[in-house]
Amino acid sequence: MPPAPQPSLTSRITAAEAGDTLLDWLAQRFGYLDHDGWRREITAGRVRRNGMGATAEAVLTAGDEVTFAPEPAPPTRDVPVLYVDDDLVVVDKPPHLVVQHAGAFLRHTFVAWLGTVHPPTDGSPRLEPAHRLDRETSGVLVLTRNQAAARAVQQQFERGEVEKVYHAVVHGLVAHDGEIDAPIGLAPGSTVAARRAVVAAATRGARRARTSFTVERRFAAFSLLRLVPHTGRTHQLRVHLEHLGHPIVGDKLYGRSDADFLAYTAHLKQDGDPAWPGRYEVGRQLLHASRLSCRQPRTRHPLDLVAPLPDDLQQFVGGLA
Q: CATH class for domain 81-320?
């Protein structure tokens, strides 16, 4: 499979940014690469200033246009398509594939490639994910092929008509089935901007979050859970399970210290393997979106979309039996 095309990213320098070197500006403005990473991109000729090659030490002036043309993505492994019509493409996303073309995983998104196989049907520039799955989370992912479908599916999410089921392997023995109804907000005192936590309802920015869980199997030191999120907060399942005292196996953020996570992000910025073999008990967080039920946006016909448990999760559980 050929490399997926990568769009160029362009920014214009403001008066407040004038005077910075190109290298410093890139590292401050786009933190998914550090200084060494951006120096490599500049040296490789993938960063241009006003349409021409540039040096890392070039001093920027107001109005300069800086363009970054990412290295072509590596060949994308086949992504199983669960359902496709003129409005939707539904895939079983493998772990370590990025939904959005952004962040430290810029070269590893698969949505651009998917759009060449099942392109938008209304002339839109790209497929639009109807919801989010973390990079390491596998399972059912719905993408829309036109703006009308995107609006219709989003309205289903807003009205609470979309039902989702996940499976996760967690640390420890979960004693019984239950429900977590606990608000989520930014983690107080954390040095990791992305970290969330269960917080008091009166906390600024706190939002109600509710998750039901069922224990499907227990092992000596782990449990396999079926999870139903009734709300859609960022990192909801991961936060609630950490709060319960049973973080997800392989999670790089929840159930670990800020220092551990920052070491991991530094590893990624040096083009390290996202699985970081030898560092964790498994290569990714064992969280899988196993089912999503919604309605076809045009006909309103019910859709029940199922992704079987992936091999890595089954192998981990099989090794515990």
A: alpha beta
Buried/exposed 134-148: b ≥16 CB within 10 Å, e otherwise: bbbbbbbbbbbbbee
On the question of a common fold for 9-68 and 81-320, the answer reads: no
CA–CA distance from 179 to each of 95, 175, 210, 232, 284 (Å)?
Answer: 27, 12, 7, 15, 25
Q: H helices within 132-286, ranges in order?
A: 147-158, 236-244, 258-269
Strand 138-144 with 287-295, pairing? parallel
Q: Which of 64, 92, 134, 312 is catalytic?
A: 134
Q: What is the CA radius of gyration of the chain?
A: 21
User: What are the boundaries of each domain within the chain?
Assistant: 9-68, 81-320
pLDDT tens track for 183-222: 999 999 999 999 999 999 999 999 999 999 999 999 999 9
Query: For domain 9-68, which architecture applies?
Result: Roll (3.10)
Percent of the chain with pLDDT over 90: 70
Active site residue 304: no
